[in-house]
TrEMBL record:
Keywords: Cell membrane, Lipoprotein, Membrane, Palmitate, Signal. The lineage of its organism: Bacteria, Bacillati, Bacillota, Clostridia, Eubacteriales. InterPro entries: Bact_solute-bd_prot1 (IPR050490), SBP (IPR006059). Pfam families: SBP_bac_8. This is Extracellular solute-binding protein family 1. Gene3D superfamilies: Periplasmic binding protein-like II. PANTHER family: ARABINOSE-BINDING PROTEIN-RELATED, POLYGALACTURONAN_RHAMNOGALACTURONAN-BINDING PROTEIN YTCQ. The keyword Signal applies. It comes from Pseudobacteroides cellulosolvens ATCC 35603 = DSM 2933.
Length: 436
């Protein structure tokens, strides 16, 4: 998750403090309408954002063009692992519910699928969705086809690789050749075998099996839930064998994703070759952990074997909000205004959810990766399947991960036992889902 790290030349940090803040000068309430000029809109909304510092920046950017609108920031205590429960409790009570939600992809899907929580944005967004990355629309749309949340960013995924390692053990750091070497499970395993042999076992293909797991999740034909039943897609069954092969042959470095060792491996030229890399991963994964990356020449981007996205945030409007006009103006500004999206992209070093802006390419090539980032990721976004995401993904993904770790550690003795354990966990955790 981007906000957990410090990117190149960035001083971002999480702040643990109070819940509600005013970030604009109070003004008299008047109904906001679609015909008013921006400076004439003087109503008030509350924004839920899980990160205080970023929430303040968002509101300041909005007030720069809507100077008389009042936006209060409501944020949880960020060290509380159950901060989502705070918003859920407010929604259940119906008291002091924020007008606008800004939530991560798995949580917003839960809100989108819960009746009477997120307002219908279908008509309001009709003229804008055609210029948005398709998978972001799918994530924000409920099972009945009603659009209820919009994203201002697209988190398309790729592979990033260490050029010094590629040159030393594969004889090339050409992105097209590396992409070909990573284009199928069989080719990935062959590439891993070559690296292990030529490095004397010092270097692995991946720092952890969790990197390709993200790819396999994106390559599924259907999500975890189909017709309210647990669905274990063939890709995830195949992945069990793939991950076991990686582990048994030391083709992955046995590091847990986001652990200190995993982060340190990014700067180590004798540890691993390939990481999964959404566009935000360039500053937040690579550059924040490999201080030499900013000088260029150390990292490259390759195409993944399966299309995927990793993380991302969506805006939604509370269905019972009495301030939906201003709430829509707020969301519309960040998800449709090209200048706003360009500015936010420059700040966050991310991909704007705007096909026209993406097609124009980045303002300049990335020194870290040596290529135009927008142009590289542009062809990858079209095949990402946002319909794979369900409201239960955080729970099910965590259960799958726990079972995979146990299996790869030898605590679970067989693939069949691993799958049974996974099903049992889901059955226990999700009472309203059928598990067969």
């Amino acid at each position: 998750m981007p906000t957990l790290f410090t990117a190149c030349n960035s001083t971002k940090k999480r702040i643990n403090s109070p819940v509600v803040q005013n970030t604009a000068t109070p003004s008299a309430k008047v109904p906001a309408t679609h015909t008013l000029k921006r400076e004439d809109i003087k109503s008030e909304i509350t924004l839920w954002h899980y990160d205080e510092e970023e929430g303040i920046k968002i509101i300041k950017a909005f007030n720069a063009v809507y100077p008389n609108a009042k936006v209060k920031l409501f944020h949880p205590r960020v060290k509380d692992p159950n901060n989502r429960n705070q918003l859920t409790s407010l929604i259940r009570s119906g008291i002091d519910v924020p007008d606008v939600f800004y939530c991560e992809f798995d949580f917003v899907k839960r809100l989108v699928e819960t009746p009477n929580v997120c307002a219908d944005l279908t008509e309001r967004a009709r003229d804008y969705v055609g210029n948005m990355v398709p998978y972001t629309i799918d994530v924000g749309t409920d099972e009945s086809g009603v659009l209820r949340a919009l994203a201002h960013q697209a988190c398309a995924g790729a592979l990033t690789y260490k050029k010094p390692i590629a040159r030393k053990y594969l004889g090339t750091d050409d992105p097209d050749k590396i992409s070909e070497m990573m284009s199928t499970p069989e080719k990935m395993l062959e590439t891993a075998r070559i690296i292990k042999k030529k490095s004397g076992g010092k270097v692995a293909l991946f720092p952890t099996y969790e990197e390709p797991q993200i790819l396999y999740l994106g390559g599924r034909s259907a999500g975890w839930i189909v017709d309210n039943k647990l669905n274990i897609d063939k890709k995830m069954i195949d992945f069990i064998d793939f991950a076991k092969t990686l582990r048994d042959n030391k083709y992955e470095a046995r590091l847990n994703q986001w652990s200190p060792g995993w982060s340190a491996a990014l700067a180590d030229d004798e540890k691993a070759l390939v990481w999964a890399c959404p566009i935000w991963g360039i500053p937040w994964i690579v550059c924040s952990n490999d201080k030499k990356a900013a000088n260029g020449g150390r990292w490259g981007l390759a195409k993944p074997p399966y299309p995927f996205f990793w993380w991302g945030n969506w805006f939604g409007i509370y269905a019972k909000s009495e301030n939906q006009d201003l709430a829509w103006e707020f969301i519309k500004y960040f998800t449709t205004d090209k200048n706003a999206m360009k500015e936010w992209s420059d700040y966050s070093e991310g991909l704007p959810n705007n096909l026209e802006v993406i097609s124009q390419g980045s303002v300049e090539d990335s020194k870290i990766m040596g290529t135009n980032i927008f142009k590289f990721y542009e062809p990858l976004i079209k095949d990402i399947n946002g319909k794979l995401i369900t409201q239960y993904d955080d729970t099910i993904n965590n259960a799958y991960q726990d079972c995979m770790r146990s299996y790869l550690a030898g605590k679970t003795k067989s693939k069949d036992e691993m799958l049974k354990s996974f099903k049992d966990k889901v059955k226990t955790l999700l009472k309203d889902v059928t598990v067969e």
